[in-house]
Amino acid sequence: MKPAPPLLRLPHLFALSGLIALGCTAETSQAEGTGESSSTTGLSATGDELPSSDTSTSGAAADSTSGNATGSSTGDEVVDTSGSSSEDTGGFIPRPDGGFPPAGVCVGISNVGFLSTVHAATKSAVDPTCDPVPAPCEGDIVGEWTIEAHCGTEVLPNFFAAQCPQSVMSVLTSSVQGTRVFNEDLTFSHSNQLVLDVEVVLDSMDCFGIECEAFGNAIDQQDNNFSGACAELESECVCMLSLENNVDYSGTYSVEDAGVVHTTNGNPLQPVPVCADGDRLTMWETLTETRAYPDTLCDDASDCQEALGDKHEQWFCA
User: Fold this and answer.
1) What is the Cα–Cα distance from 13 to 54, expressed in whole angstroms?
2) pLDDT, tens digit, for every residue of 186-228?
3) Residues 15-41: tens digit of each pLDDT
4) How far apart are CA 285 and CA 270, in angstroms?
5) Could you say which of 23, 65, 109, 177 would form a disulfide bridge with 314 (CB–CB 3.0 to 4.6 Å)?
6) What is the C-alpha to C-alpha distance for residues 229 and 242, in angstroms, rounded to an integer?
7) Chain centroid, CA 73 distance in Å
8) Structure pTM?
9) Distance CA 189, CA 175 (A)
10) In angstroms, how far is the first alpha carbon of the chain from the final one?
11) What's the rounded Cα separation, in Å, for the pair 317 and 147?
């Protein structure tokens, strides 16, 4: 099943166009001794290239009408190596077209946690208490549901870690709004908006060869879902960034033991644990981090598993 994100798929930080259904060429730098990619893509105020990140939620739409690109659109088999761990934390993917990794390279996927959303049936009031630890239960999910609360964004990895290891990213605030409709005929339609505010402290000159203020201007001026500014504060470059991402998708669904399986464009996605209790619906979408390995070519996901082993929980061939 494909790992494709619905509600929270963070776009490449500085790609010219992009999130999940997220040109410009990408340059990749090999991490010492690993052959993995710390990729850069997009333009900066000085012509230097800036990083791109790819963090997502599994189990949702492979398509988005918001102009964002989905994770894997190739239909390739995904090899699951669940139970393994990964030491990679950067989550940077090279995307020459601003949308997908180069064709024929291995991409690893690691789970980092869950984004939990609490929903209320139309015109109902529910307890908004939210827990990012999945606690699925049986219940009827048919109906129109409005998102009332969310939690789990605090586990998002540092988008800058691969190319700026000393950087620190903190999630300041987050907002998730929208509706999900599950129809009796087993069709669904979801419309969601994510707003995320983060603070990033880094040495922009050391990491990217660009002054702090110009670094912030490069982020703000590019055609992506981020806006913000950076300023020198006590000899550090402090960036306040805001992400707004709108995602609309639809398809069919089925209720399995592992959760709700959304299917878009004929592709079944990862199960989403749910708990429907009267007028209250809770969903837990897996937050994932992806990393491309441009030096490891593949025909299918099994090639990635054979070459790179258990560095990630899942593999797909771009």
Assistant:
1) 8
2) 999 999 998 999 999 999 999 989 999 999 998 888 766 778 9
3) 222 222 222 222 223 333 334 433 322
4) 9
5) 109
6) 9
7) 15
8) 0.68
9) 20
10) 14
11) 34
Contact in structure between 92 and 250 (CB atoms under 8 Å):
no
Residues with Cβ within 8 Å of residue 158, at least 6 apart in sequence: 89, 90, 167, 168, 169, 200
DSSP labels for 53-100? --EEEESS-S--TTSPBPS--S----EE-TT------------TTSSS
Residue type at 117 in one-letter notation: T
- Smallest Cα–Cα separation from 8: which of 98, 148, 129, 114? 114
Contact status, residue 313 vs residue 81, Cβ threshold 8 Å: yes
Instruction: Find the DSSP H helices in the chain.
Output: 204-208, 212-221, 301-308
Residue among 115, 234, 239 nearest 168 (CA): 239
| φ, ψ at 236 (rounded to 5°) | -120, 150
Query: How confident is the model at residue 313, as a pLDDT?
Result: 87
Pair of tokens at residue 153: 């964004």
Return the domain boundaries, the chain.
26-317
